[in-house]
């Protein structure tokens, strides 16, 4: 049996789209812009780091990061992100969303700057300090996932909630694009100011001494957008759902939302007391009630995000390797160090502009019409199709006349990742779990995704190496090749499609209706059963 909802929560659910909605999107979204910039800009500078610190002038090719170093540089921020998602997700439910929100931002700003100031000019010193600061940068980024999603979810109305949460996440696309644009500007400026020949022409002169500033500037710029939004984050009031349902302070919730919505709201303390004392609103994460009511939901959100991120991060972090393999980026020895950064950034910027960013915004526009379930299933399906279409005739795509077509096909996999599970796996966990566990469960789901990202980043690094020992990168064992790696990613996407069947549809429902927080105790079992059905159109 459904109880009458608290007036303050109902007011949020039925509120028309207002300025405060867009303010919340920008404040939370700039954090995600920074997250994506910081996580993905490292892929723009790893080749440069190899040239600066690991070049042997007696070798015919410029230096690359040794396998263990490349693995550490690529994955350490992801490890920090995983830890941050679990820790700050839990803390957001214990202390409140707002209190923790500022901490993550400060951590991101300080560690972005510190990453660019990595000490020493000796390889071991630079890489060690870079990895140290990128771990803690990732830790701060990790906190932004559950907190941004939960805050936006709890502020939004039920009609356009999916679009608002997806819009926050869509700023990730602009972050990836921003990283490429910054790298283009910095590398172009330095390449024009400090002319250098290609490595094959003059090995020593191909690396201008000023190249060491290039990667540092690119990493440090990531601190700017986060720093600019700190003041506004601190001005945001705590969400009414946390204040009322978790902190149990009806008066404060009504006061805060009266200011936000600019209407008079009643505190309703007696009604809140009755709601929060129901047994269905008191169970914890590690209980039979949670397992019965939300266990399959949590399995669905964790498994789909895990499988998605294996494919998504291996694609994103190693675009440069795929582009090099098909000849879209010239051979390293035919360029100087700074020009190589420019070529990699140009390729990644084109992909971001033509497929990554549009994919995110297609989700924003259609998620509240098509629903989360349909978009996620469709996205995984087309990612599977395009991966196999790339992989099976892989030799065909490597031939010079077909390289542009390969890039177009490759772009479609990004488009359907973003107009698909990359956005919906972020949205759904912020909607289907109770307020007292919402941030924690979103953090767990996101952490599962980052575990997949680590597997994708490290696994693809080794797996994509050629089967021919003479064609592998320096220091790497032979792998299964790019073709077989792409086939593996296609299979992973197929399993993502299957696990999507565990994820419920949340379109058009209030958060309390989805979680059962406004159900009478005797209705709990019925609601728990019906909540597991997929999808609800």
TrEMBL record:
The keyword Transmembrane helix applies. The keyword Oxidoreductase does not apply. The chain crosses the membrane at residues 20-49, 69-88, 100-119, 163-190, 213-232, 349-367, 373-392, 404-423, 443-464, 485-503. It is a multi-pass membrane protein. This is Probable inorganic phosphate transporter 1-3. It comes from Prunus mume. Belongs to the major facilitator superfamily. Phosphate:H(+) symporter (TC 2.A.1.9) family. It comes from the Eukaryota. Keywords: Coiled coil, Membrane, Phosphate transport, Symport, Transmembrane, Transmembrane helix, Transport. Residues 251-278 form a coiled coil. The lineage of its organism: Eukaryota, Viridiplantae, Streptophyta, Embryophyta, Tracheophyta. Residues 512-537 are annotated as: Disordered.
